[in-house]
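Service request form, structural biology core

Requester: graduate student, group of Dr. S.
Request type: structure prediction, single chain
Budget code: on file
Notes: please return the result as structure tokens.

Sequence provided:
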Amino acid sequence: MFSQVESKVKVEMLASDVEVQLEQMSAQQTKVRVTLRFLPRIDHGMQKWDKKLRRRCRTEWLSLGDAPVGSAVLPTAAREALLSAMTHEVTLQHTLEKVQLELSKALLTAPPETKSKRPLSWYNQLQKQLAQANKRARQEKLVGSNGEKYDGCGTEEDLEDGFVCDRCKYTCCGSCASDHCFGRCFCKRG
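Core staff response, request fulfilled:
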């Protein structure tokens, strides 16, 4: 018997917003340090059961503002930990070369070690290109509703009490303004 609704969580980051540093601990161990430049985007999804077709429907994704704060899939403590920790360290039981190979497949290439401990120029160029592409995409997408609705919680009631950012037109209500996620306009997020 299947449950009526299956919950899912999706965490997304732009590749240029992530900095990866590798350190060889031993012949078979590599320490990976991941530093996030901006907070990740967390979406909560619900997938209902279609009784007629006897299969799951497509997942309906809700942004963090529309999603329930605490759920079985993403408890409140786990959500807060995801949004607060900006540096993560993991020790992998793999060689440095294997980790670099896998990261390059994911377009998160790590520069090989150099004597001056500076990344190679091709790596800098790749990071600059990714940063420029993501900046253009961010400028196109991250425009608020300009007072038509609250971008933080999504409601359209009592719009006179809201705050509208002059630069990105992000609108939030009084209760969202005190929240560390919803109260931050697109300018402050990155």
